[in-house]
Specification:
single chain, about 240 residues, alpha/beta, five-stranded mixed β-sheet, two-stranded parallel sheet, 6 helices, 9 strands, about 15% strand, elongated
Length: about 240
């Protein structure tokens, strides 16, 4: 069945719900159920509508309304008894990397950072050595959203790093997650974002953007950023 209007789809699902309740309840009891559970029922119907929604477009016009935004402040929780660690050294206990605060940076835009894995820390070593500046974006910095079922969650890349000729958006993943549908969905929207950012930069003497999706086992302290880019840059379709 094809629906030309979301209102038609809404009434259809609502009618189905009422008929379902009336199949085993009296009219009065059905009214009570609808009044009592109206919020939950509305949420359920919304999920069903999202599953039947699609959009067709011949193309999109990208408009950049603001070319510069200030860095968002990053708030971290950490034990007062835990010192800020040197980013160049791997902690003895790596089982809970997210508990540590790392510092000692010269090229990071934030004085301290947290890493979700020792692989991220290793990549930070490379970025600190080879980029002009880098950082781990705070939530809401890039406002990139991807499709996940009926939801459109925000994608927050692991790192952003600037070099002489380019700006890299970098994501690290375990090798067995590289083809995960959610990872692929994030990659697709990030590549489109980088393409649009590059097109805008080309008209304003800015730098091109590239997206790198890097498997964890490819990252080591002695790797170069250029070498990683040659292997793992994702180009637009």
């Amino acid at each position: 069945m094809c629906y030309d209007d979301q209102a038609d789809l809404l009434y259809d699902f609502a009618g189905q719900m009422v008929q379902h309740l009336l199949s085993y309840l009296t009219k009065e009891d059905a009214r009570k159920v609808l009044r009592f559970y109206q919020t939950k029922i509305a949420g359920f119907i919304h999920v069903q509508m999202q599953k039947h929604y699609w959009e067709e477009a011949g193309g999109y016009e990208v408009r950049v309304s603001k070319g510069f935004t200030e860095l968002k402040a990053s708030a971290y929780t950490a034990s007062a008894s835990d010192p800020v660690l040197d980013y160049r050294r791997s902690p003895t206990d790596k089982s809970n990397m997210a508990r540590y605060l790392f510092g000692g940076f010269q090229r990071c835009l934030y004085p301290v950072q947290k890493f979700q894995s020792d692989t991220e820390r290793n990549l930070a070593v490379i970025l600190e050595r080879e980029s002009l500046k880098w950082f781990k974006p705070a939530k809401g910095k890039f406002q990139i959203y991807y499709k996940s079922g009926a939801e459109n969650p925000e994608y927050q890349p692991d790192f952003v790093a600037e070099v002489d000729a380019l700006i890299y958006m970098l994501e690290t993943k375990a090798m067995n997650e590289m083809e995960n549908p959610e990872v692929v969905a994030k990659k697709d929207v990030a590549v489109k974002w980088c393409k649009q950012a590059s097109d805008h930069a080309a008209t304003h003497s800015g730098k091109q953007w590239k997206y790198l999706l890097i498997p964890h086992n490819a990252i080591a302290d002695n790797m170069t950023l250029e070498g990683l880019a040659k292997q793992f840059a994702v180009t637009p379709n």
